[in-house]
Q: What sequence folds into this?
């Protein structure tokens, strides 16, 4: 199918998904992320690609591979693709896919007695959320939790930072903070917060056992009540005049210490 009108129903739907107005679908832009979505088994609702990118061999192979499984496939001019693109410079292809299951059950199915999970609490920068997802997968985390008011891990900016990790990792989305604490407590999963007030260095934790690493908001950190609800508070020793680290950087430091310890199991 070739679309020539900006007011086409598929293009209107793509803009609505891009702008977060359709919760059951996610917006994926760019050939690399599109391939990751296909490999991860996401249900592809639609593919929109420019006439220009279709002439490139790698893109043509993707279009051939996705066409049998996508509900709709359409080509457009570069100008029309600009009307649905999230980026200033269109990347040639847009995929609309069904949102992966974000229930707690996916996390339950992935968890075992030595699993490590990450809880993102009210982290509102989608770039940080995406970076943490990518780092978490690289460090061997089995799944994540995002609480209410945390940036959507399937938003376009988060997906760009996660580079496919959001498609592969189980994510329990929009959970209540205290429900997560209770869920972990009922399963004997230690809840470990990062905070500058912590008296325990992150390297002193036995990360070989199951644990839930809790990361709080970028600007304020976790509230006192939220810290006290967790089992342990850890800190990252720092030098100089620096008071805090970017949350995604802090996540990487702690998670790769955990990965280092787990590699010796």
A:
């Amino acid at each position: 199918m070739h679309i020539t009108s900006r007011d086409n129903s598929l293009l209107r739907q793509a803009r609505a998904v891009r702008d977060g107005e359709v919760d059951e679908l996610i917006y994926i832009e760019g050939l690399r992320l599109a391939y990751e979505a296909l490999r991860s088994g996401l249900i592809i609702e639609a593919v929109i690609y420019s006439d220009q990118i279709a002439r490139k061999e790698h893109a043509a192979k993707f279009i051939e591979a996705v066409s049998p499984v996508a509900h709709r496939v359409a080509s457009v001019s570069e100008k029309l693709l600009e009307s649905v693109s999230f980026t200033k410079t269109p990347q040639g292809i847009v995929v609309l896919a069904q949102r992966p299951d974000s229930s707690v059950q996916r996390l339950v199915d992935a968890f075992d007695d030595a699993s490590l999970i990450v809880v993102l609490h009210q982290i509102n920068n989608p770039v940080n959320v995406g970076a943490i997802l990518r780092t978490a997968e690289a460090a061997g985390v089995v799944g994540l939790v995002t609480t209410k008011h945390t940036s959507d891990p399937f938003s376009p900016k988060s997906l760009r930072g996660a580079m496919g990790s959001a498609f592969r990792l189980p994510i329990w989305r929009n959970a209540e903070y205290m429900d997560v604490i209770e869920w972990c407590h009922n399963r004997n999963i230690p809840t470990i917060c990062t905070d500058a007030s912590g008296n325990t260095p992150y390297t002193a934790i036995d990360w070989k056992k199951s644990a839930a690493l809790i990361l709080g908001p970028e600007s304020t950190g976790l509230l006192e009540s939220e810290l006290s609800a967790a089992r342990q508070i850890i800190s990252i020793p720092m030098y100089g005049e620096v008071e805090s680290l970017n949350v995604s950087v802090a996540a990487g430091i702690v998670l790769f210490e955990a990965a280092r310890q787990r590699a010796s199991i």
Notes: Residues 9-98 form a domain with the 60s Ribosomal Protein L30; Chain: A; fold (CATH 3.30.1330.30). The chain has two domains: 9-98, 104-262.
